[in-house]
TrEMBL record:
It comes from Candidatus Gemmiger avistercoris. The keyword Nucleotide-binding applies. GO terms for cellular component: plasma membrane. The lineage of its organism: Bacteria, Bacillati, Bacillota, Clostridia, Eubacteriales. InterPro entries: AAA+_ATPase, ABC1_TM_dom, ABC1_TM_sf, ABC_transporter-like_ATP-bd, ABC_transporter-like_CS, P-loop_NTPase, Type_1_exporter. The chain crosses the membrane at residues 21-43, 55-77, 137-154, 160-181, 245-266, 278-300. Residues 334-569 form the ABC transporter domain. This is ABC transporter ATP-binding protein/permease. Residues 19-301 form the ABC transmembrane type-1 domain. The keyword Transmembrane applies.
């Protein structure tokens, strides 16, 4: 229940609608409770005496109560819908804001498919719980209390039947809920896996078709789809027991009331109208309780969704600003002082171990090494995408943890290994680097990244629509646009994480020349090709997360075996120019 209390805080902006909806339910119940009493008077006084005035009066009052109950019900629906949809919108907004604050380490805890499910399916479960559950949740106890009181006034003896049946019904519902509750969590996890498979298949649809793996993907989808089907079947196999169990108790109660009520009528201690009114109250109460039992199961499912949403909302960002953060990065000098790092603090082996390195401001540094040597991990510590597990990373002479996180990342431009563009125009994407950039600045950045040559061939130029994820441009064009976007930031530190792998050597040479003209900017270039780094002021070689060697191209070629091996293998393959 703590999960639900946390989640429903997000409905506070709409609390007036909730209060109005609850009040209207109570008023509606009051009107409905009066109808059986009016009907009992009509049957016991108006019908035997054939008193038309009593019949018309009581009938008119019953009709008026029914109309007023209908009006209050319609008003309730309006306020409840406003509250439910407003609450769900605030909840999704809070989840999205929480995810936007996540650091890379936080995102490692959740899969993308799981986050999508938590923001859509789980939020919708709670929305439906409010939409369909608020009415019976309030109405059932109100009707139960009012109905029992009115029924007791009509016949205290028959009311005892309720007191016997209620515990039996409660025990049965408790057993059903205890079986269903864990199954809802399993069902939502199966939805996560299904969404993950769909997301992966749609993202890689071109590769699937290129390798003719459609049949295999269908088999994988069938597996996770079947898992969800089995989980849902198992869940609802227990959940549907609610209706027959309740109906068995309800019809047993009605049968007992008819039996004992008929006996009371025969011995003259009860009238037909009283029994009719009593049965009306019984049906109203039992229908409300039946609706409540359905809501009880829905709340059980809501608890599973609320728990999953709470995990997102309460996840604390792994990185935090200092108490008095520094708002400006003074320069581009970078120092690694005995830095070690592991992605998981429980991991036995470090991804980086004992890195000590000084990079002067304005220097051009190449970083090379084999696959898995932690090149990307090293540069991710500079803009503080992760924090070092041990040691200190300094930028501009200060520990990166002393800076305001936004200021640090503004001063460090990084072109990630995976190039990502967003839906919209080229202009929209480039302005991520500088929102107020003029057309002149945009074209200057594009020229430096050698993106202008293909942009000028496009009919709409900077206003060309890229489509979702930049599907309308090639891999090399996407890389150059990402480089231009980063150059617009005018950072003090510029990091290229293997960001020219999809462009030809001539274009790469042009980009290197443009970078060389950037005065005072520290440039770190991760590359697989030695031609990309051989003109750098220093070259850093990483091997299995350790600093293997540092030097210029000539120094390393003369004395380092790993560098020589990479160089001569690329020379034979024509990789060095």
């Amino acid at each position: 229940m703590q999960d639900l209390r946390l989640i429903f805080r997000y409905g506070r902006p709409y609390h007036r609608d909730l209060i109005a909806a609850v009040a209207l339910i109570v008023v509606e119940c009051g009107f409905e409770m009066v109808i059986p009493t009016l009907m009992a008077t009509l049957i016991d006084e108006g019908v035997p005496a054939q008193d038309l005035a009593v019949i018309l009066r009581q009938g008119g009052l019953m009709a008026l109560c029914a109309v007023l109950a209908l009006v209050t019900g319609l008003l309730y629906a309006r306020f409840a819908a406003r509250y439910a949809n407003g609450f769900a919108a605030e909840l999704r907004k809070a989840e999205y804001a929480a995810v936007e604050k996540f650091d890379f380490a936080n995102l490692d805890h959740f899969s993308g498919a799981s986050l999508v499910t938590r923001m859509t399916t789980d939020a919708t479960v709670l929305l439906n719980a409010v939409n369909t559950g608020l009415r019976p949740l309030v109405r059932s106890p109100v009707m139960l209390c009012m109905g029992l009181c009115m029924a007791f006034l009509l016949s205290p003896r028959l009311t005892v039947i309720f007191l016997v049946a209620a515990p039996v019904l409660g025990l049965m519902l408790g057993w059903i809920v205890s079986r269903v509750a864990p199954l809802y969590g399993r069902q939502q996890r199966a939805v996560d896996r299904l969404n993950g498979r769909i997301q992966e298949s749609l993202t890689g649809i071109r590769a699937i078709k290129a390798f003719v793996r459609g049949e295999w993907e269908n088999e994988q989808f069938d597996a996770v789809n079947g898992e969800l089907c089995d989980a849902s079947t198992e869940t609802f196999r227990h959940a549907v027991l609610n209706t027959p169990v309740f109906q068995a108790v309800m019809y047993t109660v009605i049968l007992c009331i008819m039996w004992f009520g008929g006996t009371f009528i025969l011995d003259g201690s009860m009238q037909v109208g009283q029994l009719t009114g009593f049965l009306s109250y019984v049906l109203q109460v039992l229908n409300s309780v039946m609706m409540f039992s359905g809501v009880f199961l829905q709340m059980t499912r809501s608890l599973a969704s609320a728990r999953r949403i709470r995990e997102v909302l309460t996840e604390q960002p792994d990185l935090a600003d200092a108490a008095h953060p520094v708002a400006e990065v003074p320069g581009g000098a970078i120092d690694f002082e005995n830095v070690s790092f592991k992605y998981n603090r429980q991991a036995q082996k470090n991804a980086l171990s004992g890195i000590t390195l000084h990079i002067p401001a304005g220097a051009t540094v190449g970083v090379i090494g084999g696959t898995g040597s932690a090149k990307t991990t090293l540069v991710q510590l500079i803009p503080r995408l992760y924090d070092a597990t041990e040691g200190t990373v300094r930028v501009g002479g200060r520990d990166v943890r002393d800076y305001d996180l936004a200021a640090l990342r503004d001063a460090v431009g990084i072109v990630l290994q995976k190039n990502l563009l967003f839906s919209g125009t080229i202009r929209d994407n480039l302005k991520w680097g500088k929102p107020d950039a003029t057309d002149g600045e945009l074209w200057a950045a594009c020229r430096a990244a050698h993106a202008d040559e293909f942009l000028r061939r496009m009919p709409d130029g900077l206003d060309t629509d890229l489509g979702q994820g930049g599907v309308n441009v090639s891999g090399g064009q996407k890389q150059r646009l990402c480089i231009a976007r980063t150059l617009l930031k005018q950072p003090k530190v510029l990091i290229f994480d293997d960001s020219t792998s999809a462009v030809d050597t001539a274009t790469e040479s042009g980009i290197r020349r443009a970078l060389a003209e950037l005065d005072g900017v520290t440039k770190i270039i991760i590359a697989q090709r030695i031609s990309s780094v051989q003109s750098a002021d220093m070259i850093v070689i990483l091997d299995d997360g350790r600093l293997h060697a540092v030097g210029t191209h000539d120094e390393l070629l003369a004395r380092d075996s790993i560098y020589q091996e990479i160089y001569y293998s690329q020379m034979k393959g024509g990789g060095v120019s």
